[in-house]
Amino acid sequence: MDWGLKNRIARIITPADNRALMLAVDHGYFLGPTEKLEDLKKTIAPLAKHCDSLMITRGALRTSVNPDYPVPIVLRVSGGTSIIGEDLSQEDITVSIKDALRLNVSAVAMSIFVGSKYEYQTIVNLGKLVNEAEEYGIPVLAVTAVGKEIGTKDARYLSLACRTAAEQGAHIVKTYYCENFEKVVNSCPVPIIIAGGKKIPEKDALKLTYDALKAGAVGVDMGRNIWQSENPVAMIKAVHSIVHGSNNADQAFALYKQLSGKPNQKSKNNKQNNKQNNKQNNKQNNKQKKNSNKKSKKRN
């Protein structure tokens, strides 16, 4: 592996701990202005400093990311379909390597749709992209996309898809977490990053992160579960505490609540108990005061 290729991969997967926190904001290429991603600049700005890299399209990069801020870029270079189209798997390469070089990206990314109608087209395109990217020392991240069928693929399918991507020369593979995920990791000779997928409760997303890393993934490429969160900055910090820290899912969720200004259940219960105790004490004090006043009146 050439120096330039190694250097670019090191921008995405931190060499110190072999971990990666990628922020995905490329959804607009097929979803359009999805919820909380309508204003790209507003969404990206507070989150960029908390991730290792940003997965984004060239249009969004040029219009919505500050070029003075040194966040490594993983550039989405495939597309051609939208969520209202007939088949999401009919993707092609839409960005040239020359344009990727002009944008000084750390990696290029594209989707393959194993088992779909357009399997052949997307896998061949991956091979072609690797051929071109290798000439310039640019890593390729292959996304094992499942179209509209997220959640329906098991370890057997994802192992096949990830291995296929690696065999075509992908340097990193992005896939979905599943049961028996160790099987997927063990059968793929290149690093695996997991997709965050559709929005789920914060606690579940943090558990997904922890379980995937425990099973052998090097990191996450999370989007909706961060910027669609009620508190996006708190959420990305909580994810970071798992990816680059030593927190488990429960500890990360406690951190999320703390950063969000939400009391945990224990402190909430303590407050309620204190409130009840104060009420009882006030009642007793008032009762004693009344009795004392009655006694002094009798004396008088």
If you had to describe this structure to a student in words, what would you say it looks like?
This protein has helices at residues 3-12, 28-31, 40-44, 58-64, 97-102, 119-135, 155-167, 181-186, 202-214, 224-227, 232-243, 249-259, 265-299; strands spanning 20-24, 53-57, 73-76, 78-79, 92-93, 107-112, 140-144, 172-175, 192-195, 219-222. The N and C termini lie far apart (101 Å). By secondary structure, the chain is of the alpha/beta class. An 8-stranded parallel barrel has the order 1-2-3-6-7-8-9-10, surrounded by 6 helices.
State the end-to-end CA separation: 101 Å
Kindly identify the CATH topology of the largest domain: TIM Barrel
- Share in helix: 40-55%
**Main pleated sheet:** 8 strands, parallel, barrel
Shape: globular
Report Rg: 25 Å
Note the total helix count.
13
- Compute the number of structural domains: 2
Structural class: alpha/beta
Structure described in brief:
The protein has helices spanning 3-12, 28-31, 40-44, 58-64, 97-102, 119-135, 155-167, 181-186, 202-214, 224-227, 232-243, 249-259, 265-299, and strands at 20-24, 53-57, 73-76, 78-79, 92-93, 107-112, 140-144, 172-175, 192-195, 219-222.
